[in-house]
Structure formats: C-alpha cells, structure tokens
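User: I'll paste a sequence; please echo it back and then give the predicted structure.

Assistant: Echoing your sequence first, then the prediction.
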Amino acid sequence: MNRIIKIAMDVHSTNYTLCAMEPTIGVEDRILGEAQVAPDYKEVIFFIESLKVKLGLYHNYSIECGYEAGCLGYTLYHQLTDAGIKCVILAPTTMLTQQGKRVKTDKRDARLIAQCLCYGGYHPVYIPTGEDDAVKEYLRMRDDHKLALKKLKQQINAFVLRHGHQYVGTKWTIKHGIWLSKLELNPLYRETLNEYMASYEEQTAKIERYDKRIEDIAAESRYQENAKKLGCFLGIRTHTALSLIVETGDFKRFGKGNTYAAFLGLAPGERSSSTNVNRLGISKAGNTHMRRLLIEAAKGICKGAIGHKSKELRSRQSGQSAEVIAYADKANTRLRSKYYKMIRHGKKKNVAVTAVARELACFVWGMMTGNISAAGSTGTSVPAVSQG
C-alpha cells in the first residue's frame, strides 16, 4: 500500500516553516515532522530526504508539497518540480480556515496548509507557461507606471491649486498643457512646476513605448487570434485582451461563464439564514488585476447609445468571422442595455458597472471557448437582442 505524505510550506522571504503530515481517517492528524529552514528550495529537498530516512521510505510512497500563493510567485514551484518533486500552490481564498482561533503563528499556518493538502480543502492556482508569465509581468509593469502617472497628475493639480490657480475645462488636454506652461508663478514655483511637467512628459513617453511593445506582443502568432476576437467587445482593447489571455491561460478549465466570473471575484455573495435572505456584494476573491481590468472595460461599455458601433470598434472587428462579430455585437448591445435598465431602476452606478463586468466575463469565456452559437453559451441566460 502506498504511503501518501504531504509537505506543507508556510513561506516568507526570511524563512520557510515546514510540516509533514500523513492523511488519516477518524483519528487525530498524524504529523511526521516539522522544521523551520532558510528560504531555499534545497533546504526543502534536504527536509524531504531526511524524512525518507527517518520513516524508511524506499518504495511505495508519494510526496506532494504545497504552499499558499503569495510573494514568492511561481519560483519555488518551478524549483521543486524541476527537482522532480510534485508541488501545488494553494489559492488563499479557497482554503479551509480554522474558526475561533486567536493565535496565529507560522507553525499553525503550516499545519493548516498541511490539513488542506491532506483533505482537499483548497483549489490549486493555475500555473502559466514561462512565456505567458513573462508577458504578464510586462503588462503589470506597464500598469504600475500608469498608476504612477495618475499620481503625478494629482500632484500637479494639487500644486497648481495650492497657489491660487484652477483650470476650468477638461484637464490633461493640449489646451490644459498650454495653460500650465503660461501660468504666472514666482521663479522657484515655476521651476518646481517645470520639473513636475518634465516628469509627466517622461512618464507619458514611457507608457506610449510600453503600449507599442504590447501591440507587438499581441501580434505574435500565439496571441494574435484570441486578442483580435476579444477586441470585438466594447471596452476591451489590446492591453486588456492580452492580460485576460495570459493570466487566465486555459479558459476551458472553467465549466461555464459563471464559474469564470466567480474565479475573478465578480460573483455576488450571500449570507442567509432560515427565512432571512441577505445579499452581499461581489466576493472579490481570485485575480484582483483581471477584475479591475474588466470593471474598467465595463465603464467603457456603459457609455453611448445602445447598438451604436464606432469607427474604432468596426476597425477592431474587421477580418473576424460573421459568427464572432454577431456574438460580440449581441454582448455589446445586451450589456449596454443592462446598464441603462439598472440605472433607470435606481441602482447605483458602481453596482450597475460591476454587474456589467460580471456578465462581460461570461461573454469573454464564451468567446475564448468557442461557445458562441447557443443562446445560453456564456453560462447565463443570453436572449437574442436586436441591434435596434
């Protein structure tokens, strides 16, 4: 009979806390060994080898390691799998948790991870390919610079306002830039504003360069077809499309669109008891970055007339099959109609936008899995809606 040994790792940049446990039924958890080691995968291998000698494991055994997704990313996973050791990464939002515990230590956390590994109280994190992970990191780097640019704009606006000047109109246009350059300020204030503006122009140029590189990556053969299909939706351009592709990986691992939306944390929560029904907001579990991108895409959908197609959207849809375009048009019309209907019925704007983002995730799943012909292919009831 094969012995099954689970090695849990509570990992930090400064140390790893290890706990070896053997699954048991109807008795107390059987802990085979515990240790705190330096943050090096070789120390994990040494712990495993020592455990084999201690238990006399020479044949008929299997060992699986696991750690909670966090700061180490996929590095430890790849190091252990390259060494021939099976490893999984646990999604934190899916792990079973101990109730009523007021004491939290690395040792307790390692035991909890071991229990999840032994009894299946978790879902594993999807491991992307090396190419997809590299693209993901580049896209996130670009987003970090975009956030830095946003903060810089806020700093410039605040500086100008503090010194008695306020622009009337749309900011960060050519006219706004000319207005900033002509403001009458004392010499040191003017020098300060010029330095701010130099940083703004440098950051803007960087982002333009990054966006061009992202367009080049999306045009590569392994991404081009799917990126162009996703571009048929309102609100989804190259950056968002490529992010969804590389961070999701295999869309077919989700049985239906609702499951994919839940993976992104866009599924509504509920806390009901007896006859009391209490609806909650979205779970916010899963991939925060993709959820934010889809909500931003939804904001782009929630503008304009229902059924209207801009020249840009027609250009993005050019060259796609009639079936793909019809599916995207159905989604665009349905989602925009949904938003206006919710607003008419008194729903808050943010609630309506989030609801649109959730259903957009379902349509994205349908497009990427080829489920675009049936009315209910997205995992939700999708009736045919005329373009009006």
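The chain has three domains: 3-119, 130-218, 223-369. Residues 130-162 form the longest helix (33 residues).
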